[in-house]
Amino acid sequence: MCLLMAVPLPSNANSTDTEVSNTPPNCNAQRDNWTVGLVFCTEGASQGYTLFSPIPSNTTYLIDGKGRLVHQWTSPGEHRPALSAYLLPDGDLLRTANNAQNAVGNFSGGGTSGKVERISWNGTLEWSWTYDDTLHISHHDIEPMPNGNLLMIAWEEKSEEEALQAGRNPAIASDSPGGLNNVWPDHIIEVKPVGTNGAEIVWKWHAWDHLVQDYDETKDNYGVVGDHPELLDVNYIGGTGNAAGRADWMHCNGIDYNSVLDQIALSCRSMNEVYIIDHSTTTEEAAGHTGGVSGKGGDILYRWGNPQVYDKGLSSDQQLFAQHDVQWIEQGHPEEGQLIVFNNGNGRYPAFSSVDIIRPPIENGTYTLASNGTYGPNQPAWTWDQGEAMYSGSISGAQALANGNVLVTHGTLGTLYEVNDAGEVVWEYIGPVGPNGSYTQGEPVPAGNRVGTTANAIFKATHYPATYPAFQFRALSGDDYIETWVDACPDEEAIHWDSNGDGCIDDTDGDGVLDPFDLCMFGSDTVDVDNDGVPDACDDFIDSDGDGVENHEDLCEGADDSLDEDTDGVPDGCDELIDSDNDGVENDNDTCPGQDDGIDVDGDNIPDGCDDLIDSDGDGVPDSEDRCVGADDTMDIDNDGVPDGCDDRSNGDQHNMTADNETSDDGYEMIWDNCKWSVTISEYQCWMDDWD
Predict the structure, then answer these.
(1) What pLDDT does 20 receive?
(2) In terms of Cα–Cα distance, which of 32, 27, 35, 37 is closest to 1?
(3) What pLDDT, on a 0 to 100 scale, did the predictor assign at position 668?
């Protein structure tokens, strides 16, 4: 399968486009049946690239977050790694090389190297150098430095006589070849590359220069081991069984450099400890106990993991168990400046591995001892494990990432995890390379040469962010997977869009529209109730009638809910009676909008609310002014001012019918007003009707 951003439109795609319209997902792994490669990821995984060197292979691979091959380097000397490799800022690869088959000394420990190679981005060998003779050989790990030099871990052979002179107990056996009771302590060299195959050792540190022992009081380094945490007990044996008699006494397996502190961190498996030493010294100062920024020469500044090594504490105080890959946590991670280490767990019961973050106690730039004479902390600041499901008895590593996650290498199973701060796996990759090359997807990875291991072992992987200088001005494109495939769709360029690895472009939601062209990746593109061009499954606002009210809340589907002329809570489109004045007459037939059409006092078919003259008796006088309701106010035959309809005296006399004898009916005030008796008024005369 090849990779192109322009994906030809398959015949079953409901689109007329010929170019990808969607951005490929950051993570498209749905791979429960995959046996190698990217088997799981989420959007919480880091963006960038991961470098790893399969131990059985002479090739180093760079993959992207989707598990696709971005670049690879093959050893010009056809060497397997031994065991680490690093990508330099200029794009060159700096890698260890297993030169054991050409070794001239007696060294036979695990992780033997003897050589280092620098390979350009284009695969050209730019520099190589061998550190392998009868007395020395490099192994396990190297560390590129900002000044262009590199640090290397190496063994140096000490004879049985030299070991005895250093106060080593002769009862301690050795597996040194030839039956010799030799011992191989570790040392560190700083190497400056010269030319294409030369080097200058510009700085050294030897563990053998910093020993203490309480076995032979005749030796200069005799002392109380517990009083000297800055020194190594030459008679401490951390291993058990066969490991107790190894010439590889310390088995240091990881090195890191802190350019801000100018200090070196060192992991030594057989001691179950990590160490920090001063690099600001000269080589001469590094051999002694004074000098450098610390003022302590090459003595140990800090150690952690197993206080029994310096005769402090009990077995219950041991924190590290055959650990690997100590690193300072770089800027960006919440624990920046602290240490992280892969804690293999050998000797723990039940056996399990973990990743631990350590916060060394520092006061005014000095690592401080606790009151009991040990270095803290009492426990890791953060730890992650999967119980017995993750146990790696050897190799492995851990790297803290800038986004707060941690890249974990479960080395013996060739598996990489990215874990977030909550301990959740957000990315998982199974190395697809074994002794005979790439594995085929779907086939199980063969077992390794040790119990509980697989044949795709990886020493450790390293993650590089997309902003790393090596990637600038380089076209990085994941053109294929490392593993081989049975491609079900050989005519489709599916790599960006193939989550299940069948070689076919995915149609994740099964709507007949392939993912590159899918408007809605999680639902059918064909269902769009409101016809707004956004499929319903991805439509945050489905509004079929365009009234601004979502369908599931719409009171009147198909009409505008905001139109409610009579404000009765029923949108007009669904209102059977739009009656703004609540008179029971719909607005379209309302004679008097705003008034009750049912009120028509004068019966003239004009509702009172719109009637300019409410005249119930039809006399032309409004009811509000009518003197004789029900009769014609204009009819007054006797001209007495009392409409005839209300006048009970036809002769012109008017009987004052008022009970309290107030002002006469003609409106004139009379002297008889307020009399006790009723009176009859005739023109300008009056008389009493009754005498009581």
Answers:
(1) 55
(2) 37
(3) 42
* Token pair listed for 90: 């200029």
For the CA atoms of 195, 96, 286, 325, the dihedral, rounded to the nearest 10 degrees, stands at 150
Q: How far apart are CA 562 and CA 558, in angstroms?
A: 12
Helix or strand or coil: residue 671?
coil
Q: Which residue has the tokens 């280092």?
A: 116
The letter for the amino acid at 645 is G
Predicted pLDDT of residue 526: 85
**Measured distance CA(388)–CA(410) in Å, rounded:** 13
- Tell which residue, 113, 238, 242, has the closest CA to residue 174: 242
Are the beta carbons of 169 and 235 closer than 8 angstroms?
yes
pLDDT at 650 (0 to 100): 52
pLDDT interval class at 508 (50, 70, 90) = confident
Print burial letters for 67-83: b (CB count within 10 Å at least 16), e (below 16): bbbbbebebeeebbbbb
Confidence of residue 651 (pLDDT cuts 50, 70, 90): low
Res. 179 pLDDT band, cuts 50 70 90: low
Burial class (CB in 10 A: 0-12, 13-18, 19+), 212: buried
Across the beta sheet with 654-655, the strand order is 654-655, 679-682, 685-688
Nearest to 211 by CA among 181, 166, 252, 249: 166
Distance CA 183, CA 246 (A): 8
**Strand ranges inside 171-329, DSSP E:** 186-194, 198-206, 211-212, 232-233, 252-258, 263-268, 273-278, 302-304, 324-328
How far apart, in whole angstroms, are the C-alpha atoms of residue 382 and residue 666? 111
d(C-alpha 521, C-alpha 509), whole Å: 6
Residue 50's closest CA among 413, 476, 500? Answer: 476
| pTM flag (> 0.85) | no
Query: If residue 284 lies in a helix (H) or strand (E), which one and from where to where?
Result: helix 283-286
Rounded-to-integer distance, Cα 170 and Cα 156, Å: 19
Could you give the C-alpha distances from 450 to 21, 69, 392, 411, in angstroms and in order?
A: 49, 29, 11, 13
- Residue pair 499/29 in contact by the 8 Å Cβ criterion: yes
CB 188 within 8 A of CB 209: no
> pLDDT (tens digit, 9 = 90+) per residue, 130-171?
999 999 999 999 999 999 999 999 999 999 999 999 999 998
Report which of 610, 565, 613, 614 is spatially closest to residue 592, judged by C-alpha positions: 610
**Predicted local confidence at residue 216, as pLDDT:** 98
Phi, psi (deg, nearest 5) at residue 177: -55, 150
DSSP-derived letter for residue 458 is B
Closest listed residue to residue 111, CA positions, set 86, 133, 137:
137
Q: Which residues contact 253 (CB under 8 A, 6 or more apart)?
A: 111, 140, 141, 153, 267, 268, 269, 324, 325
Encode pLDDT of 282-335 as tens digits.
999 999 999 999 999 999 999 999 999 999 989 999 999 999 999 999 998 999
Q: Are 398 and 408 in contact (CB under 8 A)?
A: yes
In 251-274, which positions are buried (b, 16+ CB within 10 angstroms) versus exposed (e)? Answer: bbbbbbbbeebebbbbbbbbbbbb
Alpha helices in 31-73 (DSSP H): none
Helix (H, G, I), strand (E, B) or coil at 304: strand
Tokens of 113: 């190297």
What would you measure as the largest C-alpha separation in the chain, in angstroms?
Answer: 168
Give the mean model confidence (pLDDT) for residues 457-463: 98
Degrees to nearest 5, angle at CA 323 with 322 and 326? 155
Distance of CA 648 to the CA centre of its chain: 104
- Picking from 443, 456, 335, 486, the residue whose alpha carbon sits closest to that of residue 392 is 456
CA atoms within 13 A of residue 180's CA, in its CB half-sphere: 17
Instruction: Look at residue 23 and give its three-state secondary structure.
Output: coil
Q: Does 671 score more than 70 pLDDT?
A: no
Answer yes or no: is pLDDT of 657 > 50. no
